Amino acid sequence: MSKKKKIGWFGWTVISTILVIIIGAFIFFFQLFDLNVQSVLGGEGDGEAQSKKEVSEEKVQEIEEIQNTVGKEHKEIGEYISEAHAFYNNTTGYGGISNLDWDKQVSKAEEVSKFIAQQSESVKNKTLKADLNDIKKLAKSVIDQQKTEDVRQLHRHFHDLDIALNSYNGYDKIWNVTKTLEAKN
User: In this predicted structure, which of 35-44, 61-70, 94-103 has the lowest mean pLDDT?
Assistant: First the structure.
């Protein structure tokens, strides 16, 4: 005959306490490092994929039209946008946004401001010019205030402009933070 042990109220209290401690430690860890499960498991670079909007087939055609017009007219700016986007992918992606190297971020923001100041006169497209001005404001804010949210927004602007100006293939979803992707030009 087999003996069955019953756990009883004391055993269940111990098990429940251990589970509460483990869950609490898990939550504390993610809060401490400003992480979410999606970013840790290899989801979107800054962990907020749910706020992106799906891109329709019609939008894909609009993007291709923008790439063929605005993108071709501003190749030098497009190349810089691509390089800056790669920088933000490398420094903020996969949880990096929660542990920024502010010296690198400020240095990049200064470079971005300088580049935009040099290029802004040559930009004839109104929406692209507005987007570059928005980026310049964000870069100034990164320099002055060093806020994580401003770096996140810079990354999103460069992501969307990389889609608009280049043949960046990561546009199954976009952030919709740029005017260049909002309307035909």
Answer: 35-44
CA distances from 151 to 12, 15, 46, 141, 184 (A): 47, 43, 10, 9, 27
| Residue 52 confidence class, pLDDT cut points 50, 70, 90 | very low
The helix/strand/coil state of 95 is coil
Please name every residue paired with 47 in a beta bridge, in sequence order, or none if there are none: none
**For residue 54, which phi and psi values (nearest 5 degrees)?**
-65, 145
pTM score, two decimals? Answer: 0.70
CA 161 to chain centre: 13
| Strand-pair partners of 174 | 53
Q: Which of 111, 183, 96 is nearest to 148 (CA)?
A: 96
Residue type, 133: N
Instruction: Provide the angle, in degrees to the nearest 10, between the axes of the packed helices 102-119 and 126-145.
Output: 150
pLDDT of residue 1: 54
CA atoms of 180 and 185, how far apart (whole Å): 8
Owner of token pair 């992707």: 181
**Rg value, the chain, Cα:** 23
Place of tokens 């019953």: 6
Residue 183 corresponds to which tokens in the numbers above? 């309307």
